[in-house]
């Protein structure tokens, strides 16, 4: 069974979300069950609230975007550690280390069923890390678990008339998120355009879904129909 990579948006661990302890517990169950049936998984966790807080605090003092990005990366690794420890305590064979590079993660996957990591280098978000890891580990797809139900033609908070898509091609997704490029530390698109560019180049399948509901993640991991947007080459 091929590896599946999951980008877990940091907002899924947000303090303001009620029941987030249950969410983490459910995630441990979903991951544990997939591993039991022979799957290998890589989880790439976003920075969420600590990234936003840290970047906001430092933004007045630090002009160099890549230095702010490093604060974001530290936050992603904090969140990755929380998820790793929860999985380990839940009895899942998860790698000891939080890899700091794609190459490191590919190596860790050899000996473990699950690897958990955060960001790697400035200039991107964890979506791009997950997509690159999926490409380099020969994964069958990359799941982008975020906090919106589908990819929309425009930001639905700004335009309530925006169209939601069940299916898209990678080309169409690139048109929606824009050309590869990192605008500003801490800002985000539904999927990082840097990652979409890589996925397009390698024909990597993406499942974009609302990760707040762990049942949706489970269905995507099992290769079943799920509520969200299937992005294919
Ligand atoms: P996230 O991956 O959480 O980005 O990384 P995001 O899209 O802003 O937030 P989510 O998806 O809603 O959680 C947080 C920040 O950390 C830096 C960037 O500044 C990013 O905005 N980062 C992260 C990097 O510079 N490189 C990485 O590989 C990962």
Could you characterize what this model shows?
There is one protein chain. It is built from eight helices and nine strands. It has a single domain (about 5-230), classed as Acetylglutamate kinase-like (Carbamate kinase), CATH 3.40.1160. The strands form two sheets. Strands 3-2-1-4-8-9-7 form a seven-stranded mixed sheet, sandwiched between helices. It is globular and about 40 Å long. It has helices at about 20-35, 50-60, 65-90, 100-110, 125-135, 170-175, 195-200, 215-220, and strands spanning about 5-10, 40-45, 115, 140-145, 150, 165, 165-170, 205-210, 230. Helix content is about 45%, strand content about 15%. It has about 230 residues and is α/β, with parallel strands linked by helices. Uridine 5'-triphosphate binds near residues 121 and 188.
């Amino acid at each position: 069974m091929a590896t599946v990579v999951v980008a877990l948006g940091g907002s899924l661990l947000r303090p303001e979300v009620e029941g987030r302890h249950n969410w983490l517990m459910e995630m441990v169950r979903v991951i544990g069950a997939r591993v039991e049936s022979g799957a290998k998984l890589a989880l790439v966790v976003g920075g969420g609230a600590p990234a936003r807080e840290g970047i906001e605090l430092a933004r007045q003092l630090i002009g160099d975007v890549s230095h702010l990005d490093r604060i974001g990366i530290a936050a992603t690794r904090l969140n990755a550690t929380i998820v790793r420890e929860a999985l380990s305590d839940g009895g899942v064979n998860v790698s000891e280390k939080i890899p700091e590079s794609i190459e490191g993660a590919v190596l860790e996957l050899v000996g473990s069923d699950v690897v958990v990591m955060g960001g790697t280098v400035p200039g991107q978000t964890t979506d791009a890390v997950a997509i690159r890891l999926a490409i380099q580990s020969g994964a069958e797809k990359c799941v982008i678990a975020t906090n919106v139900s589908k990819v929309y033609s425009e930001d639905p908070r700004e335009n309530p008339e925006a169209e939601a898509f069940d299916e898209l091609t990678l080309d169409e997704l690139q048109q929606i998120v824009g050309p590869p490029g990192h605008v500003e530390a801490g800002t985000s698109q539904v999927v990082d355009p840097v990652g979409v560019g890589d996925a397009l180049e390698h024909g990597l399948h993406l499942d974009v879904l609302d990760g707040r509901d762990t049942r949706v993640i489970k269905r995507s991991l099992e290769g079943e129909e799920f509520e969200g947007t299937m992005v294919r080459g």
